[in-house]
Amino acid sequence: MANKKGSASNIKMPDVNELFGLGQESEEQAEKVVEVAIEKLYSFNAHPFKVLDDEKMQETVESIREHGVICPLIVRQGKEDGYEIIAGHRRKRACELLGLETIPCFIRDFTDEEATITMVDSNIQREELLYSEKAYAYKMKLDAIRKQGQRTDLTSRQVGRKLEAADEVGEKSGESGRQVQRFIRLTFLIKPLLDYVDEKRIPVNSGIELSYLEAEEQEQLYQTIERLCVFPSLAQAKKLKELSRAGKLNGNGIEIVLSDEKPAALTVRLQRKKLDAYFPADYSAEQMEATIYGLLEEWSFKQGNRQEG
């Protein structure tokens, strides 16, 4: 437990004023923190970020146990007497695990678009986001910006300079509009294929190419992957996309493409730092290489793989 507490104590908590845009308000205008019963809080509609009871969650639990909830949740009035969480889903879960009955909150009067933008921006800079989380978050924010028709930040202040919508979506996370659009393409994948992308069985670039396949074609692809235990490379994904656009993709074609895989060239990297422990200091790279090949020849002969001479 000592290690976990130490880890939790090292968590850098963001400044509340900076995170939630309170710095410009006078003391009279400053929002009040309201203690809200946990049972009255519910998740944001279509919240794209997973809340897991993992090591990070345990660190959050230990931090709240020791310091309390430093950053109040941002919520808005929901249906009946409940409140929709805009920012703070993980903190809410940590408080549940601690058995707390109430959580400090800022209650904001947000439109749907303002709430969506705030929800995404408060989560998008987290480490180790899944590709699917980022993809759906970017899509939600882009849709909100387009509906809004103007740029709005956490304090709902307008800025004079207009940005391209996709560029604006990626502004908080330092990604270009083009990269944002590529991530959003992943939302066109059926869930089993998107899960493969999250699990890194299908490379993200391959997943983007496969997102252009029709849903029925993606389902056929998934069934073929399951049967052959083969995942499409980028070259294969591009070929499948090409066949789909030409209206020539079917189950047989998918199997042919996935079966036509040239073996990747074997690459072995030797680190000079490690090799230096076995060679004289004045040995050149060429001398090291010659010695290594000589030793491999001897080893191969002893294994019976080669003939002498």
Explain what this protein looks like in three dimensions.
With 309 residues, this protein is an alpha/beta fold. 48% of the residues lie in helices and 7% in strands. The chain contains 15 helices and five strands. The protein has a five-stranded mixed β-sheet with strand order 1-5-3-4-2. Strand 3 and strand 4 form a beta hairpin. Helix 3 crosses helix 4. The protein is extended, with a radius of gyration of 27 Å. It starts with a helix and ends in a 7-residue tail after the last helix. The N terminus is likely disordered.
Features:
single chain; 309 residues; alpha/beta; 5-stranded mixed beta sheet
**CA-CA gap between termini:** 64 Å
Mean pLDDT: 82
In N-to-C order, the SSE pattern is HHEEHEEHEHHHHHHHHHHH
User: Unreliable segments (pLDDT under 50, ≥5 consecutive)?
Assistant: 1-29, 151-162
Summarize the main sheet.
5 strands, mixed
Structural class: alpha/beta
Strand order, largest beta sheet: 1-5-3-4-2
Number of helices: 15
Query: Over all CA atoms, what is the radius of gyration?
Result: 27 Å
The helix fraction, in percent, is 40-55%
DSSP E strands, number: 5
Task: Give the DSSP E fraction (strand runs of 2 or more residues).
Answer: 5-15%
Shape designation: extended
